[in-house]
Batch of 4 targets.
Target 1
Amino acid sequence: MRKWLPTLALSTALISSVLAAPQALAQDSKPSPEMVPGTNVEFSPSAAHDPQTRARAAADPAAVQAGGLLCGSGYRLSFVDPLPDSRRFGTLFTYFKEVRGGNGACAVFDNNLGSKKHMKLKLCWTTCKVDEGSFSDYAGPVKYESNDPDFQPRCVMVNALMWEGDVAIIDRQTHVAACD
């Protein structure tokens, strides 16, 4: 029996280490990002937990995908905002990225009316970037990117405007994402 004790102890240690290894690996790995269904666009953490944004993104994955492609690599969907209300004359899509070496905010403003409208999409931080004109499809993308450590892409101010003649039928001002 004494001959078996060291072998048994070694076997027990080996089995314990093998069984613990997957748990250790799981603790060190990052959770996989949640993607907008039917796209290769990642939800931002706040969008992933917002039932309205999730439902709106699921209702129009092609537009979410197009906006993500227009904004570029690393941008995550922040929110989808039908404007001015449930009539949905337009839809504002906002995206942001927070990565080492450069953060960014991006917006695309869809025209859902099917005819050219005068539209303006503006992003502002310390300065403003604007896309304005007569568009039948969308305004944007408008991007604001910076390496400045004080730059907070979530807090970039977005203005989306659409006119019918001289009357603004959409006039929305918000942040790219939930801003602290």
Target 2
Amino acid sequence: MVFDFKKEYKEFYMPKNNPGIVTVPRMNYIVVRGTGDPNQEDGEYKHAIGLLYGIAFTIKMSKKGDYRIDGYFDFVVPPLEGFWWQVERHPVDAMQRTDRAGRREGVDGIDYAHKEDFHWISMIRLPDFVTEDDFRWAVDEATKKKKQDYSKVELLTVEEGLCVQCMHIGSYDDEPITVAMMHEFMEKQGYELDITDNRFHHEIYLSDARKVAPEKLKTVIRHPIKTKGN
């Protein structure tokens, strides 16, 4: 049977549509970093998605070639994910950074009028059997076969730790409603937000926005937290 991360790890990929606390372990990802409006046609973000899927499927389909990955098992390519934030023009500390539901000077929540200000790390999870050597092979193999530059793709290990998360159903622009509910919940549980230079607003996309109506989109929203006073 093909391994499906969404089914095997439902606590991370299929939360309920009310907030919950979760501890997220170390996971390996392929990532592409960038900036700008994700909705821009032929923009940097959409190009990044193509790069990620090119590497992910090269690893998945390695079973059909001569290259053998130690410990390989067949898997469903996990959903696209992303870390998101906006940065003030001259930031001096993390308080001047806002996530997709944080605060910016003069703006309550994300400044959706300026999506060009987004910074993002687009990512797809990898099975733990993929090593640095396997990743480098996949980049070389995809470059050779697809005749495309994959040098922007990185291998990144992330351990998010303690977080509050929730399933958001609806448009991405309506996320602040869900986030407000998450923050109210975490505060009642004795936690506070812990977004820093190394801990981000996190989204996991369970729907294909090209095929699903905005009001039916399913997105996991996850925020890093810590015990109040720590």
Target 3
Amino acid sequence: MPPRARGWGTTDMLPRESRREVVIPAQMRSKSGWSDVTIRNISPHGMMLLAPFPPKPGSVVEVRKASLALVGRVIWVKGKTLGIQLIERLNFNALLRAANEGWAASQVHAPSATHATAQTASPPDADSSGAMIGWLLAGVTIVFAGACAAITLWQV
């Protein structure tokens, strides 16, 4: 008799799939709403999460990371840790891409410590004459470059 396919309705014990340890912050939606979770390991058909208030076994949840959405059923809960069996096979590369996408977005929106004290580019006060001369030179350079471009295009 061939082994039964892995799915939500199966009860056959299959060999444990290999897991990949990860630490990926994500969001999970359950009946009680959205919450922040951490994905701790992944396999082709499931994942283990850390959640502040895990839903009960049997609950259907959605896990989101950046543009990736994964739907699964909670199989087990132990404390703040839960195991989810996914409806569709997990594409590791898509999840890792989404994790990097989320990380890159956080870098764009969150100023780093080295830039936190930097001044924004705004015209200086009138009393700082050295900085004022720099701004004037920059303006003159832009005007001069624009005039040169206009003359060049006019001659063509």
Target 4
Amino acid sequence: MIRLITLAAVALTATTALAAPKTQKAPAPNDGGVPFGELAQQQLAPGQCALFLWANTSPARRILMATQNPASARVVMKGKTLDLPLTAWDGEQVMGLYQEQTFSGDGLTVTVRFRAEAPRGLVGGVVARDGSVELKDATGWETVVPAAGMIACQPG
């Protein structure tokens, strides 16, 4: 009889321990090891076009804005917003922006690659698919971040 009561107490304790808590925390965001901080919403000048890329993280976060005038990329590193000048480019130009661009400064080199696509029904912009943002720091450490986004223009 004592054995049966002991088994019942163990079963009750195990069931209580396995029951879901009344309140659960949301899962922690998964930044995927992305070294870039989130870039705040940006305002374009009239007639200016920009490439915006979001990292493939959960939740997605805007990590880069590249413009043709001035020819630069804006990123956030360690809480600091940096504007890096365009130093090299290759590939087809889409709305004033090359499909492969390299920006350098502040001990960093950022290379952006994307494939442009103009989906039916999208007016005044293109989608940037299959993108990547590659970061190389002053020590030679490289990180590649899968990304996607768009090129959009502010009406002039």
